[in-house]
Design a protein that fits this description.
The chain is of the alpha/beta class. The protein has 2 domains: 186 residues, Quinone Oxidoreductase, Chain A, domain 1 (Alpha-Beta Complex); 126 residues, Rossmann fold (3-Layer(aba) Sandwich), CATH 3.40.50. Helix content is 22%, strand content 26%. It is built from 9 helices and 15 strands. Strands 3, 4, 5, 6, 7, 14 and 15 form a 7-stranded mixed sheet that branches. It has a 6-stranded parallel sheet with strand order 10-9-8-11-12-13. Helix 3 crosses helix 4. The radius of gyration is 20 Å and the shape is globular. 45% of the residues are buried. Bound molecules: NADP nicotinamide-adenine-dinucleotide phosphate and zinc ion (2 copies). The site of one zinc ion has 5 residues, from loops. Belongs to the zinc-containing alcohol dehydrogenase family. Pfam families: ADH_N (PF08240), ADH_zinc_N (PF00107). Keywords: Metal-binding, Oxidoreductase, Zinc. Its cofactor is Zn(2+).
């Protein structure tokens, strides 16, 4: 069948409507009619070819919620009309250094066909066809636009809290209050932490406090912050003052980097003398995603989103790039 989608045809180009041919699903695949798709900053990195690996035309989209439309003949756990979610990962190689250690979300061969929109058409489309391994059942009455961004932005911030063993009552920092950052604030609050939001946008203070931040910081040089926080998560898609954030960590604390920075240059002294750690985080395993979906349901956590019809996808991207989005742009695919 012919499928309508939106694609960038060259680096940094505006997205344009295109059509492509989609064959019937293979044995273990399903075709999902996309209802909503979040716009993650990773889509923008790819549109802009920031990592010099984008193949054009590029159809972005990896925060998908939709309705199962067709199932392959070996598929038994999904049926037509099921409501489902899908994030960055659609499979793993099962053989690499990560997969053989149980770190499926860190599969080093992710870009050889295991990520939703790299080397294959993503979710800014009428339909998406994927194997079922990383597709998640969702309740039929779910707010699809709210759940879609959790499939990547949500899990990417939920996972480090577990990886780095953040506990209730701890003081934690979230750097960069965008799509990922606003989830980190809500999750930290939901886990019973004291939350410090670090932002370069003073106008976000009131809203950021409304969604759960106890403190809003624009001046990181404030001496009162030194050695204060056990855990800091950076969601900024750029380099920040890494050494100052290491100073803000309490002894034994961890700085987790999930925003795609360029070059993390830090002094070794505080890592050695105060046993501070720096680590990363890459989406999350299937079990973690299920755990997150249960957590957001129990804690009644939703996404702060702005809905855009798909034909205004370029307006949505502009709003993200100008820092004006609050806090995730979600595309409504029903009008494609
Ligand atoms: P976003 O919605 O655009 O938010 C980024 C936030 O960072 C902005 O709202 C802004 O917050 C802050 N910021 C500070 N300096 C900035 C700069 N120079 N350029 C842009 N923003 C700046 O992006 P997102 O969707 O949350 O994604 C954030 C990063 O995470 C991206 O690099 C993305 O590729 C990455 N990511 C990683 C994974 C993973 O698995 N590790 C998964 C998903 C996304 P303030 O106004 O509060 O300063
Ligand atoms: Zn993403
Ligand atoms: Zn692998």
């Amino acid at each position: 069948m012919k499928v309508k989608a939106y694609a960038a045809k060259s680096a940094g180009a505006k997205l344009e409507p295109i059509e492509f041919e989609m064959d019937a699903p293979e044995l273990n695949e399903i075709i999902i009619k996309v209802t909503h798709c979040g716009i993650c900053h990773t889509d923008i990195h790819y549109i802009d070819n920031d990592w010099e690996e984008t193949e054009y035309p590029f159809i972005p989209g990896h925060e998908v919620v939709g309705i199962v439309d067709e199932v392959g003949s070996d598929v038994s756990d999904f049926q037509k009309e099921d409501v489902v979610g899908l994030g960055w990962q659609i499979g793993n190689c099962r053989e690499c250094a990560a997969c053989t250690k149980g770190l499926e979300n860190c599969c080093v061969n992710m870009e050889d066909g295991y990520s939703t929109c790299v080397g294959r058409p993503g979710g800014f489309a009428e339909y998406i066809k994927v194997p079922t391994d990383y597709v998640f059942h969702l309740p039929k009455d779910i707010d699809s636009a709210s759940i879609a961004p959790m499939m990547c932005g949500g899990i990417t911030t939920y996972n480090p809290f577990k990886l780095y063993e953040v506990k209730p009552g701890m003081k934690v920092g979230v750097v960069g209050i965008g799509g990922l950052g606003h989830f980190a604030i809500k999750f930290a609050k939901g886990m019973g932490c004291e939350v410090y939001a670090f932002s370069s946008s003073p106008e976000k203070e009131e809203e950021t406090k409304k969604i759960g931040a106890d403190y809003f910081v624009t001046d990181i040089s404030d001496e009162n912050l030194t050695r204060k926080l056990y855990f800091i998560i950076s969601t900024v898609p750029a380099d920040i003052d890494w050494n100052r954030y290491i100073e803000i960590l309490s002894p034994g604390g961890t700085l987790a980097v999930v925003g795609v920075a360029n070059n993390i240059s830090i002094e070794a002294g505080p890592l050695i003398m105060e046993e501070k750690r720096i680590g990363g985080g890459s989406i999350g395993s299937r079990e973690r995603i299920k755990e997150m979906l249960t957590f957001v349901n129990e804690k009644n956590i939703n996404t702060e989103y702005e809905l855009f019809p798909i034909d205004n996808v370029n307006g949505a991207i502009e709003k993200i790039k100008s820092g004006k989005i609050r806090y995730r742009a979600v595309l409504d695919l029903s009008t494609i």
